[in-house]
Structure to design on (418 residues):
């Protein structure tokens, strides 16, 4: 077996183990905890996921392309600059995040875990992105497994064996341990890469240049991620914390599709598309897009069919009537996830060509589409309003990015015609 194929298969296997672990965790949390506790877990994870962008400012979108353009002897200076920016953002944003607890959006009992997990998630996320950018996808998957999968397996086994461990405190503690181990592994590998340029002084002018590029991406990302945070708080206000537990369960299953595509498709596609475009190789670009389209459609369709077949038996095993009663939400969440996955096809092509504005504009507009659509649906179908609002927003994104792709991509990069 060629080395590239072996690495990809191992990478997919690690990501698959991570996804299976996360699913196992969600499933057993639904089994062993009350629905309201699962709802609180969902609120905390969504809020951490949103706050991550305040600590990173999506600066990696600038750093990644800069790293790919430069020699390894210069990488240390770029990473040092990004670290200096992150430190400044920590000082700027960590104190105001306390308002989440002051305003009662989350209870004070989880405040310590929130800040601990937020910092660990940010550091390990940035290390993982760096490893992907420098073609260390396999190690990036291992870091991700430690960060998101290994601890989930451990705490699930513990909760199964020892009933006294069935608490959110135990889950958050295991999460912190997994994040710390992932951080150590990523930092160790970074040291092994023998990157040069660390002695350079922090270049604030380069950071400002990057911020001018990254901030529009940040605004777009905050708008898009706002959907995955606002949806939970809005759903709770419409249906209550217990029913939110069912929504969190179904969303956790559906998001496995995006994680799998990230690992097996997108992580390999966008670097090759960037390289093909930078070398003006239209044939390689077309081949990369064809492969991206085929793999995304095939994997997402297979995932949805399997999920629809298995969801009934899985919910039966939970032995909690609430989840079965809310099963009608699941197909709509799957549809929203499928639309989001399809939108990543033109997204990767636009990003590889440096066409950032359509991506930014579509993400901002999607939040503006989500809010009125959800409000409108809530007048007649309050429990389905949020999933239907997500479907509307992601369909909007898919159409916008597809239109931009055909409008901005030169003919030779999307057709065999000269």
């Amino acid at each position: 077996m060629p080395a590239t194929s072996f690495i990809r298969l191992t990478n997919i296997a690690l990501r698959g183990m991570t996804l299976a672990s996360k699913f196992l965790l969600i499933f057993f949390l639904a089994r062993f905890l009350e629905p309201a506790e699962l709802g609180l877990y969902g609120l905390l994870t969504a809020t951490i996921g949103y706050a991550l962008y305040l600590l990173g400012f999506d600066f990696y979108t600038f750093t990644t392309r800069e790293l790919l353009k430069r020699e390894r002897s210069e990488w240390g200076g770029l990473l040092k600059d990004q670290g200096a920016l992150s430190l400044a953002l920590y000082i700027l944003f960590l104190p105001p995040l306390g308002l989440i607890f002051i305003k009662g959006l989350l209870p004070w009992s989880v405040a310590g875990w929130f800040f601990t997990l937020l910092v660990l998630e940010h550091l390990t996320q940035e290390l993982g992105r760096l490893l992907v950018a420098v073609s260390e996808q396999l190690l990036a998957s291992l870091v991700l497994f430690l960060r998101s999968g290994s601890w989930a397996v451990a705490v699930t086994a513990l909760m199964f064996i020892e009933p006294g461990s069935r608490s959110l405190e135990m889950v958050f503690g295991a999460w912190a341990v997994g994040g710390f181990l992932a951080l150590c592994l990523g930092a160790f590998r970074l040291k092994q890469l023998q990157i040069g340029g660390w002695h350079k002084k922090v270049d604030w002018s380069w950071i400002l240049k990057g911020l001018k590029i990254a901030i529009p991406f940040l605004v777009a990302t905050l708008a898009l991620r706002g959907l995955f945070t606002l949806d939970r708080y809005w759903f709770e206000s419409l249906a209550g914390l217990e029913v939110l537990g069912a929504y969190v369960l179904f969303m956790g299953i559906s998001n496995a599709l995006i994680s799998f595509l990230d690992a097996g498709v997108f992580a390999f596609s966008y670097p090759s598309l960037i390289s093909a475009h930078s070398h003006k190789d239209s044939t390689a670009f077309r081949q990369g897009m064809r492969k991206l389209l085929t793999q995304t459609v095939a994997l997402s369709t297979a995932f949805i069919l399997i999920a629809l077949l298995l969801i009934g038996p899985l919910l039966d095993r939970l032995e909690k009537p609430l989840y079965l009663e809310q099963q009608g939400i699941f197909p709509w969440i799957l549809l929203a996830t499928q639309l989001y996955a399809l939108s990543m096809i033109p997204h990767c092509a636009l990003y590889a060509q440096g066409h950032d504005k359509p991506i930014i504009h579509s993400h901002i507009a999607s939040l503006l589409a989500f809010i009125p659509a959800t409000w409108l649906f809530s007048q007649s179908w309050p429990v389905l309003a949020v999933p239907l609002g997500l479907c509307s927003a992601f369909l909007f994104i898919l159409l916008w990015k597809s239109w931009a792709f055909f409008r901005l991509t030169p003919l030779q990069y999307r057709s065999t015609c000269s």
